[in-house]
Amino acid sequence: MPVIGRLLIVGLGLIGGSLALAVRQRKLAVEVLGSSRSQTTLDAAMRLGVVDRVVTDLPAELKTLQENDLVLISVPTLTVPAILKVLQAHLPKGVTFTDAASVKGSVVDGVRDIFDYLPPEFVPGHPIAGSEKSGVAAASADLYEHHQVIVTPLAETGAEHLARVVTLWTEVGASVHEMAVQEHDEVLAATSHIPHLLAYSLVDTLAGLEENREIFRYAAGGFRDFTRIAASDPTMWHDITLANSAAMLTVLDKFSDKLAGLREAIINKDSDHLLGVYTRAREARNHFQKMQEQKAYLEPMNGSTVNYLVQPGGQLSGELRVPGDKSISHRAIMLGSLTDGVVEVSGFLEGEDSLATLQAFRDMGVVIEGPDRGRVVVHGVGLHGLNPPPGPLYLGNSGTSMRLLTGLLAGQQFNSVLIGDESLSGRPMLRVAEPLSQMGAKITTAKGGTPPLEITGGQSLKAIDYTLPVASAQVKSCVMLAGLYAQGETRVVEPAPTRDHTERMLSGFDYPVKTEGRTISITPGGSLSANSIDVPADISSAAFFLVAASITPGSDILLRHVGVNPTRIGVINILRLMGADIELLNEGFTGGEPVADLRVRSAVLTGIHIPEDQVPLAIDEFPVLFIAAACAGGTTVLTGAEELRVKESDRIEAMADGLDILGVSAKATPDGMIIEGHSVETGTGHDGDREISKMGGGEIDSHGDHRIAMAFTIAGLRAQKPILIRNCSNVATSFPGFVELANSLGLRVTVANR
Ligand code: S3P
């Protein structure tokens, strides 16, 4: 169905010709006309069926156009003014005209000069679909599918004209974005115009070398990839370069400085400089690719479409190692960056949260190699070697990154801003801002004490004695990190023991930390020496399978090399109190952290009142512990756990709601939950002969919380019907590969991207 009357395309190259073909094939215009200075092009356009009719007398044809018609100017940028003059003289008022030039400022200036004003009919546009191919013979009807078109409407542009242009591009498959003229030209200078200039320049340089024959003969890989665009149309790029000279010079100057820096680095054999540029660039490149594919990293920010479908039943067997500990991975990057040497990390968790920390330190100038299958090499810059980040530090979903970094950044000489995704942006930050302010830090939060956090550097911090109002390892660690930069001895008193990875790792880097009972003290003035770190498997990830094997008759699994730090084993203690059969084998130490293999066999669980002293030691494991409680005989009561309400979601409500859908009686209380064990089990033993009752099935919202999503996946083992869990992409924050590992042990989960 036509969406416009006649389409007249002036200039039948790749861009104009492809639009003509696309519009003809889709019958979007009553008639498609083409004009060109070259008779050969016109002949080819007819022969290839690109247009319905060619135009040889442009002024005469323009005069016949009417309101529903549209003119596209797709000639080289510096030829645009000549065409505009013809339009100004002959195009009737009310007829929409647009262009396809890569530079918008010069075209808009041209229109203003030639028309003496900016006509409402003019819609500046730029389809980003060019390639090194050119000419009408390269035209393709699907060139614009899944490509972007930028329009830069002006205040004077008429809404109906803009709508007509947007509709046409959309109908040929493009997605249309609006931008300001200047922004367009700056962005395109950086992303398109300078890369072309560099490609031309490199090929020209190599072609001028004596040994050029040899070079070109062996030119493969890098040369070919880098210089593909040097095969583009020289006139077109000559025009673009002159038309966008100001924006291009700005980028070129920055690039020249960078190049000079690399030259120096080569002369001085400055590996840190080279690796810094290369690793940052590789990350940035991957990041752009993901952005373009609209995948990963950005998904959690955009609200997610990943759902899990869990088939009921299954049995677990086998052995595996779950990914690295999240808390230790964060600290390996943070503290590793503050050492005076090179820290080799193995077992690093390649999850979104720890990667957010890694990126933040790269943004502050730390050279970090990897991650490559859990291996990361951090080139420490010392306690005073961080650089100001170029912009806000984006920390995704990660509360640990934000709270620990706030303490560290409060002691720096530069300002910083910390931001996060929707969930993190709603989480309480006064718990760190307040003690830091008492130390003399300058931090502002958004209304309600949430991110973004703005930290003004250059303050002189003084030590405090701080009693934590809540048992929180994040707050403890935050204050300790600020203590590295404060005058005097900083003391933190915990109401109950919390994970002590910061203390252990600082000691491992030979930085003195004193722990006396519940008081941890640290003084400034020391330095961190580099030592390697082996990150154990995360007990918080293992927890899902500890529960899974416990609640599923006939199961027997081995989880290897799990961190069993006493401040983290609440989940084992609680499950054992409920009757679970968990054995610790091959106990040992790695980098100051205790580890063991965990053998878990199914058992008959019984409801308990969970001892409150275990709450901080199992703080992240309650979602899956609630599933264990739902499968236990009798009532399980949790108290003293109000912290669960301010995790990645309100985990008390989220779990109560989900359990209710599965037919389990779960009553949320202000500080915990009362769960009536759903199953009455008969018989005992590990043999799979027990009769067990089951939960129902249904559709559950994880609220974008990784641990809620994984907990309900485990529930599928004792469900009667399938469970559909919505909003699961954040599982990647802490447990990449969860679905594959779960299936390899005997669960039946599929990922449905909707
Ligand atoms: C963490 C501490 C805990 C925990 C979080 C990781 C850490 O948070 O829930 O997942 O690495 O220090 P709180 O300190 O807020 O309890």
Task: Walk me through what this model shows.
The chain is α/β, with parallel strands linked by helices. The chain is built from 26 helices and 34 strands. The model is unreliable at 294-304 and 680-688 (pLDDT under 50). The longest helix has 28 residues, at 181-208. It folds into 4 domains: 4-179, 3-Layer(aba) Sandwich (Rossmann fold); 187-269, Orthogonal Bundle (6-phosphogluconate dehydrogenase C-terminal fold); 306-319 and 537-753, Enolpyruvate transferase domain (UDP-n-acetylglucosamine1-carboxyvinyl-transferase, Chain, Alpha-beta prism), CATH 3.65.10; 326-534, Alpha-beta prism (UDP-n-acetylglucosamine1-carboxyvinyl-transferase, Chain), CATH 3.65.10. The strands form 9 sheets. It has a 6-stranded parallel sheet. 48% of the residues are buried. Helices cover 39% and strands 20% of the residues. The protein is globular and about 90 Å long. Helix 16 (399-410) runs parallel beside helix 18 (473-483). Bound molecules: shikimate-3-phosphate (S3P). Residues 327, 400, 472-474, 477, 499, 619-620, 643 line the site of shikimate-3-phosphate.
